[in-house]
Amino acid sequence: MDTNKDIPTVPLNKFIKHSLEILKNPLPFHRQNFNDKGDTFRLKVGFNTEIFFSRDTALAQYVLQKNQKNYVKSKIQTVDLAKYVGEGLLTSEGEKWKKQRKMMQPAFHKRQLENLLSGMQDTIVSEFATIATNKSIDLFPIVNDLAFQTVVKSLFTKAAKAKDMERLQFITEANQRMLVRELRQPYLGWWFKISGTLDKYLNLSKEARTILKGIVEERKASGKRYGDLLDMLLETRYDDGKGMTEEQLIDEILIIFTAGHETTSNALTFSFQLLAKHPEWQDKIYEEWLNLGGDDADVMTRISTSKVCQQVLEESMRLYPPAYFIDRVNVEDDSFNDMHFEAGSNLLFSVYEMHRHPELWEQPNAFMPERFADGSRKFSSQYFPFGAGPRKCIGNNFAMFEMIIAVTELISKFKIYPEFDEIDITPLITLKPKNAFLRFRKR
Questions:
Q1: On the CB side of 398, how many CA atoms lie within 13 Å of its CA?
Q2: What is the pLDDT of residue 372?
C-alpha cells in the first residue's frame, strides 16, 4: 500500500530533465512544482529515493515544534556537513545535542554578548573604512570579510594570526562549495572518492583543526582571560562539572565559523541591496540614528532602540532568508492533515517559499519593512529566519546585534546607490547574493 498517496508526486524523469538548471539554481524548479502541485509534494530523485518538499507552515510547526521529538536532522547535516566540521551543535543529534545546547546556551545570552559589542563595533568600523566612494564596487567580499572578522574577534580577541584566519576562511568556503557539489551531483560520488577530490577537501578540514588547536592550546597556556567567546566556551561546564574535550571544543568553533559568518554576510548584503533600491528607508534609518545620539550613543542602547533598522533587517530576511531550507527525517511513521510519512522520510521545508507564500503575506514579493512595525512575533507561525523550535539558531542574538551595528554604521556614513538591475541569488548551502554592485557617496 502506498502510504503517501495523498501527496502529489513530481516524477524522476522531470527531475533528470531539469538537473542542469537545478544544479545552478533549484528555486525556480521548486516554485513551479509548488504552483502546480500545492504546498507539499514529493520529488523522486532516484528509483528508490524521494524527498518531500513543503511550504506548509502548519506542517513546519508540527515537525519543528509540536512533534519535534519524532524528527531528526537529515544526513545532509549529520553526515555530509559533519565530515567537514565535526559533530558540534549544528550537526549532532539526540542526547549529545541536548547536552551541548544546555552547556553552550549561557555563552550566547544577551547579557554575555554585551561584553563583545565594543570589539564588534570596532571591527565593523575598521572594515567599512576600506570602502571606496563614487565607483561601482562588489559589496559582498567586504561584508563577508567583515562578518568573518567579527566572528574571529568575538572568539579570539587578538590571539589569532591574520595569516591563519585567512587560511581558515578559505577552507571554510572551499569546503562549502565541495559539499554543494556532493549534494547536487550525487551521481558523481564515486568519482569524488576515486579521484582523490574528496580527500583533498577532508585534508583541508584537518588543517583547519590544526590551526584552531594551536590557538586553543596557546590560550590555555597563557593563563589570561579576555572575556571573549573562547573564554566562555573554555569555562562552561556540564552537569558533572567537566568541561568540553579539546576535540569537541574545536568542533563547536568550526561550526561557529561556518554558520556564524556565512549567514550574516549574506543577510547584510541583501539588506544593503534592498536599501540601495529603496533610499527612503536609508533616510529613515539615518534619522533614527541621529535621534538616538549618533556616534555618541551607547552601543547596546542603539541596538535595543533601532526599531526602523530592525524592521529593514526582518524584511530582508523574509525576502532572502540565508538559511533558506530546513531538513528533517521522521524516526517513526507520522501523519499530519491526511498526509502520511513512513519512518525515514526526508522532509525539506522551503523557508524561501514560506516567506513569500501569497496566502500568508500581503504583497509577498514587495519590500515592505513596515509590516514588521510591531516586531516579528506576530508572524511567528510563518516566519523562520533562524529556524524554529528547540533547534532554533543559538546565535540569533549575536547575528542581530552584529547586523544592526553594521547597518547603522554604514548608513550613518554613506548614501548607497544600486549598480545592478535586479537582486540576483546563488543558492548554495545558504542563500548567497550575486553581483551585489553598489556605489557609495559620503554623507
A1: 29
A2: 97
Region label for 440, one of left (φ > 0), alpha (ψ between -120 and 50) or beta (otherwise):
beta
Contact (Cβ atoms closer than 8 angstroms) between residue 258 and residue 265: no
Question: Would you list the domain boundaries of the chain?
Answer: 55-442
Q: Closest Cα partner for 315 from 354, 270, 277? A: 270
For the segment 367-376, the average pLDDT, to the nearest whole number, is 95
Task: Please tell me the distance from the alpha carbon of residue 258 to that of residue 254, in angstroms, as a whole number.
Answer: 6
What are the residue ranges of helices labelled H in 138-196?
A: 139-156, 162-184, 189-194
The residue with cell 507520522 is 334
pLDDT at residue 5 greater than cutoff 70: no
Q: What is the pLDDT of residues 19-59, one digit of tens each?
A: 888 888 899 999 999 999 999 999 998 888 899 999 999 99
User: Which CATH code, of 3.40.50.150, 1.10.630.10, 1.20.120.530, 1.10.238.10, is assigned to 55-442?
Assistant: 1.10.630.10
Q: Is 155 helix (H, G, I), strand (E, B) or coil?
A: helix
Would you list the DSSP string of 193-221? HHTSHHHHHHHHHHHHHHHHHHHHHHHHH
Question: Letter for the amino acid at 180?
Answer: V
- The CA distance from 313 to 396, in Å, is 13
Over residues 274-332, the pLDDT tens digits come to 999 999 999 999 999 999 998 888 888 889 999 999 999 999 999 999 999 999 999 99
d(CA 288, CA 308): 7
Record the cell numbers describing residue 421, joined without a space. Answer: 538591475
